[in-house]
Design a protein that fits this description.
Layout (H helix, E strand, L loop, with lengths): L1 E6 L13 H24 L4 E4 L11 H12 L4 E4 L22 E3 L6 E5 L4 E5 L23 E7 L1 E2 L7 E2 L1 H5 L5 E5 L8 E3 L2 E4 L16 E8 L2 E8 L5 E7 L6 H8 L8 E7 L1 E2 L5 H8 L5 E6 L2 E2 L12 H14 L4 H18 L8
Parallel strand pairs: 1-2, 2-3, 3-4, 6-7, 7-10, 8-9, 10-12, 15-16, 16-18, 17-19
Antiparallel strand pairs: 1-13, 5-6, 11-12, 13-14
């Protein structure tokens, strides 16, 4: 049995430009703390291998504190660590990867050509390749085929499945033909879960911590177990903070403040949220006051107003056209409705009907 921790896309020292400078610096420090969580997980799970599939660094510019934290954390992992540089942290002579800070248990792939490292004690061969430029339009699996020698063959790569772009394009046919047992990928920031092409299992773990509103919810790494020909995987959250988007419908609310308070989830004090106001409102929201009132509920919050003023539902009932006729008939039913529930259904019917008629389906009579 082979136990693997598979991570990717840490993007250490990302700028966090959307946050105030103090919070951006704090988030970069928190990224370094992710490395200790990775090491702790490898110890806890008794991992045989740690595979890091590129974009460990956000760019070629790395803070000294980050380099030291990286070296310390990887060095205390009681397993071999393999790194495949990606498009953000591509290998070059002046990159951090070419320096001497790396512990003895860390192996960095440095070429676009696939390199293979045999591990007799584990009955395993680890294959990998690197980006050496910011873009690569050639499949890193081109021409590769693992031998059918009874060993476990795994590969660590940065690449883009199903996209014929310039970031190591990979097809499912490439993966199926590789002869690999497990392909550990990086580049896509959403966890894919275990996938299979032919007899080869593959996965993206996603990024271990969100950096913006395109990276929502829990983020982490994969704990993968290879047992004979069987592969299983478990997503393990690492992120200390989450990004979330919260839509708040103002329709029918006494005030925007009341609608927002009613919609707020609990346990968000460490998270970054975007609150989006939608629906029809009686009064324009005071975004500055709302944001001030929400600061204590989140690490950072921003508001967007996509709501619109409430319209008089029956305003066009007097028109001499199909819209007027439709509304007059519904209003008669609404006025004679037995209860509030029936009225609400008729109002909904009126809104849907208006939306259809006002989008070009209203010929004049």
């Amino acid at each position: 049995m082979l136990k693997i921790i598979h991570g990717a896309d840490f993007h250490l020292d990302a700028p966090f430009a959307a946050l105030p400078p103090e919070q951006a610096a704090q988030r970069r420090a928190e990224q370094r703390q992710l490395l200790d969580r990775l090491a702790d997980l490898a110890v806890e799970r008794r991992a045989d291998l740690v595979l890091l599939s590129g974009d460990l660094l956000d760019s070629g510019e790395t803070y000294y504190e980050t380099a030291q934290a990286l070296s310390r954390a990887l060095g205390r992992i009681p397993a071999l660590v393999f790194i495949a540089p990606g498009n953000h942290d591509f290998y070059q002579a002046r990159s951090l990867y070419a320096g001497k800070l790396w512990p003895d248990n860390v192996h960095i792939f440095t070429s676009v050509a696939v390199e293979s490292v045999e591990l007799p004690g584990l009955g395993c061969v680890v294959h990998g390749a690197a980006f050496t430029t910011p873009r690569a339009d050639r499949s890193p699996l081109l021409g590769f085929r693992a031998p059918a020698d009874g060993k476990i063959h795994v590969m660590v790569l940065h690449g883009d499945v199903d996209n014929a772009g310039r970031y190591g394009p990979l097809s499912r046919e490439d993966i199926a033909a590789s002869g690999l047992t497990y392909l550990a990928l990086g580049h896509v920031h959403t966890c894919s879960g275990l996938q299979k092409a032919g007899e080869t299992w593959w996965a993206y773990p996603g990024c271990p911590q969100g950096r913006g509103f395109d990276e929502l919810g829990d983020k982490g790494v994969l704990a993968v177990t290879v047992d004979g020909g069987q592969v299983s995987g478990e997503f393990v959250p690492l992120a200390g903070r989450r990004y979330g988007v919260l839509p708040v419908d103002l329709t029918g609310a006494a005030s925007p403040e009341e609608a927002v308070r009613a919609a707020l989830p609990g346990g968000t004090e460490r998270d970054v949220y975007r609150v989006v106001l939608t629906g029809q409102r009686e009064e324009a929201p005071d975004l500055a006051a709302l944001e001030e009132g929400l600061k204590a509920r989140f690490y950072h919050v921003e508001l967007r107003d996509e709501s619109r003023p409430r319209r008089d539902l029956w305003a066009r009932a007097g028109e001499d056209n199909l819209t007027g006729l439709f509304l007059r008939q519904l209003r008669e039913q609404w006025e004679g409705a037995a209860d509030g529930q029936e009225r609400a259904l008729l109002e909904q019917a009126a809104r849907f009907g208006l939306a259809a008629l006002e989008n070009g389906e209203d010929p004049c009579l």
